[in-house]
Amino acid sequence: MGKFEYAPAPESRDIVSLRESYGLFIGGEFTPGVDGRAFKTISPATEEVLAEVTEAGPADVDRAVSAARQAYEHTWSRLPGAERAKYLFRIARIVQERARELAVLESLDNGKPIRESRDVDIPLVAAHFFYHAGWADKLEYAGYGPVPRPLGVAGQVIPWNFPLLMLAWKIAPALACGNTVVLKPAETTPLTALAFAEICQQADLPPGVVNIVTGAGETGRALVTHPGIDKVAFTGSTEVGKEIARACAPSRKKLTLELGGKAANIVFEDAPVDQAVEGIVNGIFFNQGHVCCAGSRLLVQESVYAEVLAALRRRLETLRLGDPLDKNTDVGAINSAAQLAKIRELSDVGEAEGAQRWSPPCELPVKGFWFPPTVFTGVSQAHRIAREEIFGPVLSVLTFRTPAEAVEKANNTPYGLSAGVWTEKGSLILWMASRLRAGVVWANTFNKFDPASPFGGYKESGYGREGGRHGLEAYLDV
Ligand code: NDP
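A: This is the predicted complex of the input protein with NDP.
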């Protein structure tokens, strides 16, 4: 069975009005950078320049931290929780009202399919603000003492894979707990963070409570090392996470790190195969595999290996790759030329080390950054594609015979962010979950997120939790 033919169904971009250039959002206003430097952000699907964005230098970061400090001392930390909640509810509602615009903007700047930005990213952004608005006046019941106090000014650095969602994960709990923030979005995806700055204005959020400084790694470094920051929250690569941990170690800054992963998605012989195949596809091809908790290592019980692989290949032949704004698209563009080069390099290494590479027949657009859904079989645990985070639509398949062997192999990684278990036996799910060294274990599903559920890692996947009651701890003086 091949693909159905669908007529193109592109979402209109008219709902987005892009400015030619964007300043920094400091003290409630868009302002130019001190040294006048700027960079361009492009659509990874077409390489079209979308806008010019200011590159914040140390003096700009300093201004943003001062604005956040002022707002913390004089306004935000003095407001009762119920008042802070009103602003968060207002932001959540504006996100819902502007959902379509934000989804189109996210797909333009990031390359992810509109189906995902519209149905996953943006609804979760609103959910995070609603959820944390609910906590703002109930913090004394969160289990952190009768009068939980905020930390002060948070410096937050986020990656490009879920730009607005990562912003929500960082800003919503910080504000709910009474902190103010300076956030740096990733260089390749600054536009929804800047749209969020407009939303803060629209919500009449007091100036300085949220500040957005755009720029590259240097801007991030200036932010996390700034002495006026009380807390650092980072999501990104393990390498940069380690650098930040070293930079923060001699200070009193509180730190949370959400880093890489190499999750095992484990399919037992009694799992419903079609359902498991959907979970495997969602686990690694959702968001082009640019997901820290992606199920990038598939562990299949040997007895059903042939059946699962055949069903997976059939399913992959139906995936549509192409225009992120087309509502039929399943696999969008790779976020940047640099990320594409990394995916290509590691995939070539996989072949050179002896694994067998397979992709469904699929035509790649000529312009932009694209990589086909790819499956490697014959992978051993020593292969680099089984050990390193590829952060792309590339699945490494391994096999196992017994549950104990599955646990051994799943845990044989420096990471520990997530895992998936597919079986019809509840007892086996619990047995596995108690042995898997992963912050999140999904059972008969994958990549399910909920603001009420804590998320975070073991080992080199980082420390601290985001979301749920546990996530509040990162923003309170406990
Ligand atoms: P980075 O870790 O470099 O980027 C994450 C964020 O940190 C970005 O905003 C980045 O800015 C900023 N940053 C970079 N260097 C510093 C620094 N020294 N101090 C403070 N902030 C800094 O990830 P990359 O985008 O370079 O991706 C590299 C690899 O990391 C990927 O191939 C993937 O394997 C992994 N990754 C993992 C993620 C996860 O969620 N686990 C998310 C993103 C990447 P800028 O964007 O300007 O570089």
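Residues 114-135 form the longest helix (22 residues). The domain at 21-259+459-475 is CATH 3.40.605.10 (Aldehyde Dehydrogenase; Chain A, domain 1).
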